[in-house]
Amino acid sequence: xxxxxxxxxxxxxxxxxxxxxxxxxxxxxxxxxxxxxxxxxxxxxxxxxxxxxxxxxxxxxxxxxxxxxxxxxxxxxxxxxxxxxxxxxxxxxxxxxxxxxxxxxxxxxxxxxxxxxxxxxxxxxxxxxxxxxxxxxxxxxxxxxxxxxxxxxxxxxxxxxxxxxxxxxxxxxxxxxxxxxxxxxxxxxxxxxxxxxxxxxxxxxxxxxxxxxxxxxxxxxxxxxxxxxxxxxxxxxxxxxxxxxxxxxxxxxxxxxxxxxxxxxxxxxxxxxxxxxxxxxxxxxxxxxxxxxxxxxxxxxxxxxxxxxxxxxxxxxxxxxxxxxxxxxxxxxxxxxxxxxxxxxxxxxxxxxxxxxxxxxxxxxxxxxxxxxxxxxxxxxxxxxxxxxxxxxxxxxxxxxxxxxxxxxxxxxxxxxxxxxxxxxxxxxxxxxxxxxxxxxxxxxxxxxxx
Length: 451
Known about the structure:
Belongs to the multi antimicrobial extrusion (MATE) (TC 2.A.66.1) family. By secondary structure, the chain is mostly helical. The protein is 81% helix and 0% strand.
């Protein structure tokens, strides 16, 4: 039975540039909005509470990514499956995939919430978090973890919407969440003086808002990806397919996040100012990296639909177009960040030591963002065909194994934090070389039948 297309944007025909661009823009804006309300937490905390509180929020970021990394992999797997079934115009399997995906997200969300609340202190101690920062870090992370269920379910709902080509909806809901978060940050931190507790609670509430709005839309929409609450359950064959595609991405995300936790642990040894400066720049870094990941998600959906429809030529053209878009974006933003590095850091703090640590990170990162853009776009292309293991191996090798070896072997030869900062562009080079070799030589793009 053919799938109705009123609110399902199939990208299997038409202008490729326009389709990828128009699909990417809401994803980019949505991710930037999500990063905005995370950044606002740090800006308000840094200006109204102090550098130690800013360090506490920043040091928790890598752990938060670790907690949600696996669920993001599951959302990626579900998105690929849903997009392929939509491309193949298979209504029954689309229905099964959507409801199985939501069931998986609820289970993962509950597990992550419990784990985050119970293990926060121990992990932060293991990360060498300084005593003057530890209390605030634990408080922020525990409260934030209390809202992880809503974060995970929203990400899955967003993945379903994106798979259907309806990325604008995710943008709308993140917009509402961002406004909610900013208003509550001002009320809780500036007016009520709640410190890092207020920042975490504001974020939790904003995540509840985006989750309820996204699920509410999926319940009401009259499309093949509509959610019927009574049908939310695990379909074994569909769950197996989602896990087969999503598990490598989830493991990849978790392991890379773990390596970032190790990097953060190394940064922590340089003291609170280094933690605050690095953490503040990581918020700025998100405005570059997240759009790159948006392009990667866009090409994954585009490839999923066209690969499901056996339109191999469109898959190849889409890959090159996305690579060009990512390159242009990262070159422009890299130049802008370097040009305005000082005023950007002053948004977070007036502490000169913190500012210098942040500016130094920009000097190492900004000229090389194009490398991570090409790496992620190629990985997203391959992932869209359902072959998620090769990108996992490449990203784990470059962004996890290589970084861990560097921290153990090379870092002791550096007496400053430069040894940590230079690690990022070097690992991007390693990853891009490996990914190009696989795309060039690997057998990842062959005609098939979606099963």
